[in-house]
């Protein structure tokens, strides 16, 4: 079984759908109520409706660039069909958002398969406070539940509580943690973690990194050093660079994504804290703008509330 096959199987479960619906509740309520107001008193989709819809999408943190793309597509559809009722707008908007996510490979995980790499190395990046450590713990729990041997590397050695938090998650979910003293060289921690993973024939390595707001040059140098050191043990590591973003920060998440994608080769996104915000539209905008697949979403505080992102389930939940 591939590393992520079991995610696909489990995310289809009814309890996962319930968790997703509950997690997107605030976003959904705001989004749908705004759309209802946008079409109030109108029977057809005209310029006024499109202007109102544009405002709805922008204020839902979909982002200006992605909003304009969606509006242009709907305009083209209206021009082609000559008549489009406001009753059809929900379905059309749902289709266009789903198409955008499909174009951005939001469900294409063929490049992330475990089978070709042992250990499969994931380097997790992101600023402090976005839920990075929690995401690592929840991901480790999911992988361990499928009888995969997982080890965590506590390479965020600059924040006082970071190493202890990783250790606590390791104890909680029952996976091994490699750590050094606070202030140690992060690259040294990553090197030791990979060496021990190879020696112990472990399946997955998850490396935490410092969440400081570096300047781009400093960030690039530090992450580059960690990558270079890991490749001395496992060629082509890390196989995945997972950027964790806090969905509740809206447009701030766009700026963080910009900074990190310029600093390192991010190839997967995890968007957390969607259950506590009405800004879930950020998932659509970030996926579209950066062309990086959203791989995980956090829809609750429970250890099982990290879900593999399913674009169809996400859009269906948003419009239900």
What keywords describe this structure?
single chain; 320 residues; alpha/beta; Four Helix Bundle (Hemerythrin (Met), subunit A); Rossmann fold; 2 domains; eight-stranded mixed β-sheet; 13 helices; 8 strands
The CATH architecture of the largest domain can be named as 3-Layer(aba) Sandwich
With strands numbered from the N-terminus, the spatial order across the biggest sheet is 3-2-4-1-5-6-7-8
Radius of gyration: 21 Å
Give the oligomeric state.
single chain
> What does the largest sheet look like?
8 strands, mixed
Shape: elongated
Q: Would you tell me which CATH topology of the largest domain applies?
A: Rossmann fold
Domain count: the total is 2
How many DSSP-defined strands?
8
By CATH's scheme, which homologous superfamily of the largest domain applies?
Answer: P-loop containing nucleotide triphosphate hydrolases
End-to-end gap? 33 Å
Task: Indicate the mean pLDDT.
Answer: 86
- What amount of the residues lies in strands? 5-15%
Stretches with pLDDT under 50, minimum 5 residues: 6-11
The chain-level structural class is alpha/beta
How many helices? The count is 13
EC number: 3.6.5.4
Binding site for GTP: 126-133, 208-212, 272-275
Protein name: Signal recognition particle receptor FtsY
Membrane topology: Peripheral membrane protein
Written account of the structure:
With 320 residues, the chain is of the alpha/beta class. The chain has two domains: 18-103, Four Helix Bundle (Hemerythrin (Met), subunit A); 113-310, Rossmann fold (3-Layer(aba) Sandwich). 51% of the residues lie in helices and 12% in strands. It contains 13 helices and eight strands. It has helices at residues 5-11, 14-23, 25-38, 47-59, 64-81, 89-103, 132-145, 162-173, 186-199, 216-231, 251-263, 282-290, 311-319; strands at residues 120-125, 150-154, 176-178, 204-208, 240-246, 268-272, 294-298, 306-308. The protein has an eight-stranded mixed β-sheet with strand order 3-2-4-1-5-6-7-8, sandwiched between helices. Helix 12 (282-290) links the parallel strand 6 and strand 7. Helix 4 packs antiparallel against helix 5 (64-81) and helix 10 (216-231) crosses helix 11 (251-263). The radius of gyration is 21 Å and the shape is elongated.
